[in-house]
Amino acid sequence: MMTGLYIVVSRGNLIKKIVGLNIFQTSVFLLYITIGKVNNGTAPILTGKSEIFSNPLPHVLILTAIVVGISTTALGLALVVRIRESYGTIEEEDILVSEGHQTEMELNKIQP
Question: Which of 4, 45, 47, 93 gives a 20 to 30 Å CA spacing to 106?
Fold first, then answer.
């Protein structure tokens, strides 16, 4: 989980930020799936016997989250393509400098 967050925060390349978000999302998916698993649990099908059931809700929610994650990634990549067409780069620093928000000298002071 922390690897994805670190990539998002530390990298200036927009594609790498999207990859970091995907790593972060995948780790959250795995966290929720493992929470929903019960040792020796069976599928929640009522048979009349006394059994331990696994909770299917986390799995269903994660399937929905995967679809949302894929669409978010597709939208992010489409935005990166448009940004590349407009600014000629996908580096965050270069985009900020071309917009005039920060100068190169200010950027170098912020990042060691």
Answer: 4
Can you spell out the DSSP letters for 34-55? HHH--TT-B-S---SS---B--
State the Cα–Cα distance between residues 99 and 92, nearest whole angstrom. 11
What are 64-102's pLDDT values in tens digits? 999 999 999 999 999 999 999 999 999 988 888 888 776
- Classified by CATH at the fold level, domain 2-38+55-110 comes out as Helix Hairpins (1.10.287)
Q: At what angle do helices 57-87 and 92-99 cross, to 10 degrees?
A: 50
Look at the chain and count its residues.
112
pLDDT at 48: 82
Residue 100 is given by DSSP the state T
Q: Where are the domains of the chain?
A: 2-38+55-110
